[in-house]
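Journal club prep, notes for RB
We'll compare a predicted complex against what the paper describes. Inputs for the zinc ion case:
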Amino acid sequence: MSAGSSIGVDVGGTKVLAVRISVEGTVQDVATRPMPGRSAPEAEVEHAVVEAARAVSDGDGAAPIGVSAAGLVDRAGEHYLFGAHLPWRDAPLRSRLAEQTGHPVVLENDANCAAYAELLLGAARDVDSALLITIGTGIGGALVLDRRIVRGANGLAGEFGHMQVVPDGLACECGLRGCWEQYCSGRALERVTRVALGKHRDGPEVSRMALDGDDVARQAFATIGTWLGVGVAGLVSAFDPERVVVGGGVSAVGDLLLAPARSALLGSLQGTGHRPVPDLVPAALGPQAGAIGAALLARDGRP
Ligand SMILES: [Zn+2]
């Protein structure tokens, strides 16, 4: 049993990832469970969360658990309200998981968790303001100003993936049309590749093909990278951050995504050449950022 450790569980569209971290933030153990699916019963997904947390708990029944969930979490961190990729609707998720695990639980939006981890331990350690964009199944976002996560009046700020970028555009799982994440996400990457190749390749396959030099896959990354830069330019115009940190599984190809994004950012921002333009950099903590951030929030208390 490790004294002072905390647990973070990230509930994403495809898997449940749990970590245990030391009091200094070092990852000590990792476990994953399949995500039962967005149409699965709520209890089944809760069971996967509890199992993943147990797998890393090292017998420490007092270790606080942070739960990182994609979608809308209320400002108090009590209710999961809505998410395109998870089944809960207006559910008192924090208290349910506290009851089922017997551990203290904090609940937070996944991008806010990842931003907290990058702020304390990662790519935003040395700046006061940053935008965090995570590109996975969809887009997650968080805004840090004066080293604090901006939550908005209801805790719902940072849902950048569902800003409409194309009026009457592609249908989104959230029920709207033309959302940014329909043009810049793992799903978008698969769609663009399918149109070009005439057959399906899943996101990780397209990433491997691009890293191996495949032209179609590289062009698909250039397309979604351009959409990334265009969307980021709007956010930079609104918030003027010092740095833009890009994480999530889709960003693992690095500059194949980020170089077209940087050039679209420059081309879509007012007054370039006469103003500072924020660096657009990869996240430092990789695919565990959400779970690590959740564990750090469990350690520190939700600010
Ligand atoms: Zn949407």
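Talking point for the session: The pocket of zinc ion is lined by residues 162, 172, 174, 176, 179 (CB under 6 Å).
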